[in-house]
């Protein structure tokens, strides 16, 4: 029945701050920006991958403490941590290594949502 996951939506308070984080700092390409029913929306992500949809709005439907996180794979966790330090993005948790093939950290986006950066060996 299902073929693939198309996108994950986050409602954010400040779209520009979120774009600075996800696009400028983490490097997710902006696929498109548009307005729908008075709301600014941006779709980010790599071609043929699940997109991250950011919708600007004042109401928060999903709270950061709900336990939802977004995970991205990195080529080198050590290099990612160096880059985060340069960008002034603190590591919220980790690094964690639950097995010899996986290491990850968590950082927080401007709205407090957790973003996991994982390295698979």
Describe what this molecule looks like in 3D.
With 121 residues, the protein is an alpha/beta fold. It contains 2 helices and 8 strands; from the N terminus they run E-H-E-E-E-E-H-E-E-E. The protein has helices spanning 15-25, 77-87; strands at 7-12, 30-36, 39-44, 51-56, 69-73, 93-99, 102-108, 114-120. The protein has a 4-stranded mixed beta sheet with strand order 1-4-3-2, covered by helices on one side. Strands 5-8-7-6 form a 4-stranded mixed beta sheet, with no helix packed on it. Strand 6 (93-99) and strand 7 (102-108) form a beta hairpin. The longest helix has 11 residues, at 15-25.
DSSP summary, beta strand count: 8
End-to-end separation in angstroms reads 32 Å
Helix count, per DSSP? 2
Basic shape: globular
In sequence order, what are the helices and strands, one letter per element? EHEEEEHEEE
Report the oligomer: single chain
Average pLDDT over all residues: 92
Proportion of residues in β-strands? 35-45%
The gyration radius over C-alpha positions equals 15 Å
Low-confidence stretches: none
Widest β-sheet, arrangement of strands? 1-4-3-2
Largest sheet composition: 4 strands, mixed
**Helix percentage:** 10-25%
Structural class category: alpha/beta
Break the fold down into its secondary structure elements and pairings.
Blueprint: E1 7-12, H1 15-25, E2 30-36, E3 39-44, E4 51-56, E5 69-73, H2 77-87, E6 93-99, E7 102-108, E8 114-120
Parallel strand pairs: 1-4, 5-8
Antiparallel strand pairs: 2-3, 3-4, 6-7, 7-8
Question: Features of this protein?
Answer:
121 residues, alpha/beta, four-stranded mixed β-sheet, 2 helices, 8 strands, globular, Lactoylglutathione lyase, lyase activity, Glyas_Bleomycin-R_OHBP_Dase, lyase, Glyas_Fos-R_dOase_dom
